[in-house]
Design goal:
42% of the residues lie in helices and 14% in strands. By secondary structure, the chain is α+β, with helices and mostly antiparallel strands. Among the domains are: 183 residues, no CATH class; 79 residues, no CATH class. The strands form four sheets. Strands 2, 6, 7, 8, 9 and 10 form a six-stranded antiparallel sheet that branches. Strands 1-3 form a two-stranded antiparallel ribbon. Strands 4-5 form a two-stranded antiparallel sheet. Strand 9 and strand 10 form a beta hairpin. Helix 7 runs parallel beside helix 10 and helix 9 runs parallel beside helix 12. The mean pLDDT is 94. Bound molecules: adenosine monophosphate and magnesium ion. Magnesium ion (MG) binds next to loops.
């Protein structure tokens, strides 16, 4: 079997090199001091066809800590721009991420980008150090796998490395790397970059590359650019509907943090809802709540508008507007469908929207925990005290429960069938901030055991994990004090 390192290849970069476009810069990682592998994601390694023996080779630690570059590994940093908090920010780019190469996977040899995040400065680092600290790397490593475990499209993480490299943030922290794996690292901002530089040929070359690599079946179609944009609209709507359904708040939905494939990307100050609160703002720096939980669906559309603007040299305005108009109905349809399933309903019927909204309103006013409520709803019966006890307004809940019970009687599932189905869509575990925080504090003292435990739990959040039952309970009181900012 060919080793992982030998399988890394560079077709993308060679294509662009031939075109002479400035889409990327060759870079070299900077070594981490005394690196140590905190965790390998063996599940992902298996999916990528990487042998366990490869993971355990000393060369793997070398590669993942930027200490070694095999002859065929030629890292690059990609350029992009973007709108940050609604304002045009100009050129950004991979300031601390380096794509090592592409890995052909499976019988169809589909390509996955292998990227090292936190590997030192690049031409796009501006005034920063190109590093990532252990704290933020643990959060990205665990949360991208948690999202995957929840069935939500996301970048993945293969490996987490800690080191004795000192990184200066509000205090000195240890430098770390995450090996990020994704089918694409092209962002909305990648297209904006060339559009605002008035380089339509580069916009076209980038679109052709994306279509060639991800949608080869459309290469010869005259409307291939439109199909590509339509796909981004639909995938983004679906991704955000899923975020809303699990209570995920991304926190920094700038256009440079939006993947053209509709994958969740760039885990920064994200947070999962504890008690249901549509106004929740996970990002301490986002004082105005532009990226508050309830705003995510409309921000998705705002960002797609920004992408549409960047594609005006390829697609007519009428066509772009027609596609953008489909976003809201698609989002609503997806969201309704997921929420219907979360309630254990076989199909969506008129009146169900009211049932969903009434429950969410009750949860909001009664400060009911989002994840726990839906998980315990799987056990719904007419006399379920555990459910009722989660509401201070018990009569309000009783009224809702009566309607819900009536609705359930209209379908032919047994309670057991409904329960089975609901348990497979209402997670028992989500990566709440306090869990990541406790795990980080241990890891900063050199004890990585919690990283391993949380990874295992988050990779199968719908299952029972008898050794981690406490993570299925209400968060401790101190959880409310945690404040997460962009500093990472
Ligand atoms: P983010 O908020 O993580 O999406 O990053 C926004 C921009 O800042 C991107 O261009 C990043 O590459 C860059 N950036 C963030 N942190 C660093 C860092 N420590 N060193 C260099 N660039 C960074
Ligand atoms: Mg980013």
């Amino acid at each position: 079997m060919t080793s992982f390192i030998d399988r890394l290849q560079h077709s993308f970069f060679d294509t662009f090199r031939e075109q002479g476009n400035l889409h990327f810069s060759p870079v070299l990682p900077a070594r981490l001091v005394d690196p140590i592998i905190v965790s390998h994601n063996r599940l992902l390694a298996e999916e990528l066809g990487i042998a366990t023996t490869d993971l355990d080779q000393p060369e793997m630690l070398e590669l993942m800590s930027g200490n070694f570059m095999a002859a065929n590994v030629k890292p690059v940093a990609l350029v992009y721009s973007g709108h940050q908090f609604g304002v045009w920010a100009g050129q950004l780019g991979d300031g601390r991420a380096m794509t090592l190469g592409e890995l052909p996977v499976g019988t169809d040899a589909s390509l996955w980008d292998i990227q090292l995040k936190g590997a030192g400065p690049t031409p796009y680092s501006r005034f920063s150090d190109g590093r990532a600290v252990l704290r933020s790397s643990i959060r990205e490593y665990l949360c991208s796998e948690a999202m995957h475990g929840l069935g939500i499209a996301t970048t993945r993480a293969l490996c987490l490395v800690d080191s004795k490299t000192q990184v200066y943030r509000e205090e000195i922290e240890s430098g770390a790397t995450v090996c990020r794996v994704a089918q694409s690292h092209i962002r909305f901002g990648s297209f904006e970059h060339f559009h605002y530089r008035k380089e339509p040929d580069a916009v076209r070359a980038l679109a052709d590359y994306v279509i060639q690599r991800h949608f080869p079946e459309w290469v010869k179609d005259t409307d291939r650019y439109l199909k590509f944009f339509r796909n981004t609209v639909f995938k983004t709507a679906r991704m955000i509907a899923q975020w809303q359904s699990v209570g995920f708040n991304h926190g920094v939905m700038n256009t440079d943090n939006m993947s053209i494939l509709g994958d969740t990307i760039d885990y920064g100050p994200f947070g999962f809802l504890d008690s249901y609160n549509p106004d929740f703002i996970c990002n301490h720096t986002d004082a105005n709540g532009r990226y508050a939980f309830k705003n995510q669906p409309s921000v998705g559309l705002w960002n797609l508008n920004a992408l549409a603007t960047a594609l005006t040299s390829l697609i007519s305005n009428e066509d772009l507007i027609a596609e953008l108009t489909k976003y809201e109905p698609e989002f609503l349809q997806q969201f309704r469908q997921i929420m219907t399933t979360k309630l254990g309903l076989q199909t969506y019927a008129s009146g169900d929207e009211q049932l969903i909204n009434q429950l969410l309103d009750l949860m909001d006013t009664n400060q009911v925990d989002y994840t726990i409520l839906f998980r315990s709803l799987c056990e719904f019966s007419d006399s379920n005290q555990t459910l009722r006890d989660q509401f201070t307004d018990r009569e309000g809940f009783d009224d809702w429960a009566k309607n819900y019970s009536r609705r359930l009687q209209q379908q032919d599932w047994t309670d057991l069938q409904r329960r089975e189905q609901m348990l497979s869509i209402n997670p028992k575990f989500v990566l709440r901030n306090y869990m990541a925080q406790a795990c980080i504090e241990k890891a900063q003292k050199g004890d990585y055991s919690e990283v391993h435990r949380l990874l295992e739990v988050m990779q199968s959040p719908y299952k029972d994990h008898p050794k981690a039952e406490e993570y299925a309970s209400l968060p401790p009181d101190w959880a409310g004090q945690i404040s997460i900012s962009c500093s990472s």
